[in-house]
Design brief:
mainly alpha; Four Helix Bundle (Hemerythrin (Met), subunit A); two-stranded antiparallel ribbon
Length: 271
């Protein structure tokens, strides 16, 4: 049989150098940062440092937003990275916020009776279970899903909603049964939104190479100043608005679809 030659050898073109294996460490290092931040949030909450626990979860969000983009920019996507990212997300955005809310509230709410303590325990577990379901559904449908939207509230946003609320209450030193009930209500609502089918804008179609108005660049430092003035309240407010955007977007689609389906008077009559 004739020997086959490499096309690069037959044409004289230089064979591309194989990509070094070390570059795969870069996105996985950020994924490890997600895992570490979630673990640190759990430890900080166990020690009663809820401010640090809230900060750690938001740091995990930043690392989670970078690992996938870095993998795409460097063309180092892999099945290992996908599975590692999902497991790290479960720790940082599923277990860590639930433990933070549990440590902050269940210990206090048990003083008002065992029934309240059990309700708080169930609320935090419900959140963790919904986060696991949300991540599993995302992995199962990622190949066929519309990249412009998320189905249900993303788990990092759910974690920001719950951890941000607990961080805000702890920063404002709000205690009492009402504050505790609100915290567990936020855990329940965040979990329900994660497993819902409400559409949420993903932002994945945002092109950094596209020209943007100059005024948009001015909003970036203004946003940092506003958030930096009171991080717990501002972060909770921003992610609270994002959590509400899903039901509002769903309602808007329902209303506009209903208007399109209504036949105008005389529209179907023969001329």
């Amino acid at each position: 049989m004739p020997m086959t030659t490499d096309s690069s050898q037959s044409t004289g073109a230089a064979r591309p150098r194989p990509r070094g294996r070390g570059i795969y460490l870069l996105p996985n290092l950020f994924t490890t940062g997600v895992l570490f931040s979630g673990f640190y949030a759990i430890v900080a909450a166990t020690d009663g440092n809820f401010d640090r626990a809230g900060i750690a979860i938001f740091v995990a969000m930043v690392c989670d937003g970078l690992d996938g983009r870095i993998a795409r920019w460097t063309n180092t996507q892999s099945e290992f990275g996908k599975e590692f990212d999902s497991l790290s997300d479960m720790v940082a955005f599923g277990l860590a916020p639930a433990v933070v809310a549990y440590q902050w509230g269940v210990v206090r709410i048990a003083e008002y009776g065992s029934v309240w303590g059990r309700l708080g325990w169930l609320a935090t577990f419900f959140y963790a279970a919904c986060a696991a379901f949300r991540l599993a559904r995302f992995n199962a449908r990622s190949a066929t899903a519309d990249k412009r939207f998320f189905e249900g509230l993303p788990s990092p946003s759910g974690a920001a909603l719950l951890a941000g609320f607990v961080w805000m209450l702890n920063d404002l030193q709000r205690e009492g049964l009402r504050a505790l009930v609100l915290a567990f209500a936020v855990a329940t609502v965040a979990g329900a939104l994660m497993v819902s089918r409400f559409p949420y804008l993903s932002g994945k179609d945002f092109n950094l190479n596209r020209r943007i108005p100059f005024a948009f660049l001015l909003l970036v430092p203004v946003g940092f100043i506003v958030v930096g003035s009171s991080p717990p309240e501002m972060l909770f407010g921003l992610f609270g608005l994002y959590a509400l955007s899903g039901p509002l977007l769903w309602a808007w689609h329902r209303i506009t679809r209903g208007r399109r389906g209504v036949v105008q008077p005389g529209a179907g009559a023969p001329k």
